[in-house]
Amino acid sequence: MAYLSDIEIAQSCEMKPISEVARTAHVEERYLEHYGRYKAKVDLSLLRDAADKEDGKLILVTAITPTPAGEGKTTTTIGLADGLRRIGKDVTVALREPSLGPVFGIKGGAAGGGYAQVVPMEDINLHFTGDFHAIGAANNLLAAMLDNHIQQGNELNIDVRRITWKRCVDMNDRQLRFIVDGMGGKANGVPREDGFDITVASEIMAVLCLSSSITDLKERLSRIIVGYTSEDVPVTCGQLKAAGAMAALLKDALKPNLVQTLEGTPAFVHGGPFANIAHGCNSVMATRMALKMGDYTVTEAGFGADLGAEKFLDIKCRMAGLTPDAVVIVATVRALKMHGGLDKKELATEDLGALERGIPNLLRHVSNIKNVYRLPCVVAVNRFPTDTDREIGFIIEKCRALGVNTVLSTVWAEGGKGGEALAREVVRLCEEEKGDFRFSYADSLPIAEKIDAVVRKIYGGKGTVFTPEAKKQIARLEELGFGACPVCIAKTQYSFSDDPKKLGAPEDFDVTVRSVKISAGAGFVVVLTGDILTMPGLPKSPAAERIDVDENGKISGLF
Question: If DSSP codes are grouped into helix, strand and coil, which group holds residue 63?
């Protein structure tokens, strides 16, 4: 049987005009700024005007530790929203925007899959409404003003060896990780070591996604630290007088984007920080807007629950005052068998032994949500044709022992219809089970103890090892008054540990912290572990080789 690709399914769907989608979301036409027939930005005044309206229920979708077998977190998020709508609920979706780098690298598209997608799929995956370009422009304006300040006399006495601000581009380009610039003589700048981050790792992305207004945006931009003086004093964006111009570049990017699912459910798609190197959640503004415009809002956090969900709960919820009403943890039999040691080529055969070895990964994520964060949760199993009833039954039994239900999801093949059972369980959790939400650490803990709390409680490690450099950096950050900030841990997405080869639910491991820095505008401390890079590279055979456009402007190859 020949299956349609994701892009073929998306292109075969008849989209509704965005004004009609907006009416479904209770958004009046006067708040819309149209980007063609099927996309719009929503003016921030909607939030002010809807301030007295009660928020809907917030459902977080997260997943087990990712594998090459795939889990389908975004697909489940979209299918669940469509399923909720099919059972008569007033629902909105809040998602991140895809980054061009992975789209042209290993993903080839990140707007869901099968019959659970947001559309127009090609636009969302490519330039969309230009948000990421605006973020890159604001980031690079600050870099240009920083280097210009040094060129024009360096009144702030910035040490060129201690500049922490990098330029950015929204592409996987390893060639730009480490560069030397300012070459060519005095008129062409001051020679120094420099580098690029991918746009989704830029602090500007985090700032935009955590800002609550234009005023808050400007204040956060002003606090960004770009480097240090010869006397080890931080130098900020505010001192360089760049915040106003940067905010001017970002004023439209701050407005959430409204699109639709294949079944016409309103979707706010806005912002896109990476989850293994940033906080991995869509914007606070989009989430708040979605909560005001629906009785149920389904959102997701990037990668596994140890990364995306931890940061959603410990950073975004802490800063924005949000509390999820229920959590969905997505798993597949195939991925759990990979965690049990099977090769990707062996996943089509029933293997309860491999499943038993791999299921501790799911159970640790479930335990974290239920016992650390004290939130009601359900396991959603994306069923594949090769999954056997005995394998599914095994997962159901193991999760039931933790007091958590398991629901089969077939949203990839059936869209909202395949998400109705999951939707009913989510509604039950929201209506019948009351959470007792707690963070995994308190604001008052020192930075090192916050990191150690995440390592022990969420990752399941035995402790944290800090390099001498990291210890010195932590001490300095606490001297500067940043000790109360939450921590944003950058680590591999492929393991609970900082070693991507340790699959399943490893035990008796330490996590090594090699570097710590402050994102003062975002308001969190970035903790670097393992070999995490803030500028990815393209794979040997990038998706870009298969992406094309025909004479009529029809795009192909986005999976």
Answer: strand
pLDDT (0 to 100) of residue 4:
82
Active-site option among 16, 39, 57, 73: 73
With cut-offs at 50, 70 and 90, classify the pLDDT of residue 110.
Answer: confident
Establish whether 384 is a catalytic residue. Answer: yes
> What are the phi and psi torsion angles at 302 (to 5°)?
-70, 150
Average pLDDT, the chain: 94
75 as an active site residue: the answer is yes
What are the tens digits of pLDDT across the range 480-495? Answer: 999 999 999 999 999 9
**Location of structure tokens 């919820």:** 317
Check if the beta carbon of residue 80 is closer than 8 Å to that of residue 319.
no
φ, ψ at 168 (rounded to 5°)? -145, 160
Q: Is 316 a catalytic residue?
A: no
Specify the residue for token string 């509390």: 323
C-alpha–C-alpha distance, residues 328 and 270, integer Å: 21
Distance CA 365, CA 376 (A): 13
pLDDT of amino acid 106:
83
Which residue among 75, 287, 332, 410 is the active-site one?
Answer: 75
Greatest distance between any 2 Cα atoms in the chain: 72
**Rg of the chain on CA atoms, in Å:** 23
Determine whether 76 is an active site residue. no
DSSP 301: B
Cα–Cα distance, 473 to 391 (Å, whole number): 48
Instruction: Choose the catalytic residue: 104, 128, 312, 412.
Output: 412
Q: How many residues in total does the chain contain?
A: 559
Q: What is the DSSP letter of 281?
A: B
Decide if 107 is catalytic: yes
Residues 6+ apart with CB under 8 A from 23: none
Q: Which of 196, 268, 303, 466 does the annotation list as catalytic? A: 303
Average pLDDT for residues 369-385, to the nearest whole number? 94
Residue-wise pLDDT tens digits, 151-208? 999 999 999 999 999 999 999 999 999 999 999 999 999 999 999 999 999 999 999 9
- Please report which helix (H) or strand (E) contains residue 57, including its range: strand 57-63
Q: Look at residue 70 in the predicted model and tell me its pLDDT.
A: 77
Q: Which of 110, 253, 275, 490 is catalytic?
A: 275
- Residue keyed to tokens 């996987």: 172
Residues with Cβ < 8 Å from 446, sequence gap 6 or more?
474, 478, 483
Q: Which of 23, 107, 428, 502 is catalytic?
A: 107
Catalytic residue of the set 384, 482, 496, 559: 384
Active site residue 73: yes
Looking at residue 1, what is its pLDDT?
46
Quote the tokens at residue 183.
Answer: 């070459």
Respond yes or no: is residue 509 known to be catalytic: no
Lookup result for tokens 């994102």 = 519
Q: What is the pTM of this model?
A: 0.95
* Residue 337 bears catalytic tag: no
